[in-house]
Amino acid sequence: MDWYAVAGAVAALLALVLLAASLRRARRDAARFRILDEVARVSDGAAELLETLDRICDVLVPAVADFCTVDVISDGRVERAAARVGPRGGAETEEVLAAREPSLPPLTVPAGEDASFEPRFIERMDDAQLRALAHDPQDLQGLRGLGIR
Q1: Which of 6, 61, 64, 125 has its CA 20 to 30 A from that of 42?
Q2: CB neighbours (10 Å) of residue 110?
Q3: What is the pTM (predicted TM-score) of this model?
Q4: Closest Cα to residue 139, out of 130, 147, 148?
């Protein structure tokens, strides 16, 4: 057996696998930059904050998310500012999410004058995360019913 030929074939196969992985990563990164570019464009074009947040939700759903909610924290109050649900969820689900009381993230800075909240992006939703977001057992059932991935 010609071990040099075998080694050369294995090296060529490995190079093809690495090239394919690199191309997949480049396409994924390009898609992310297109989405960031679109978010920047809609942000620049909107006159008011609520309009901007609505437009950002439109960009993200369903391109990268099953749903998107944006909550605004102002003067110690948290309010739902925008909500969007992908095609699988429908208008009724969007209305439920828009009316749902926001789930507060944990404080990221100790209480006091400099207290702030950390935004959350959940790439893969599991049941433990749904339980953490739910206000009560009924809310948990509603969140489970969304079919969030």
Answers
A1: 125
A2: 7
A3: 0.65
A4: 130
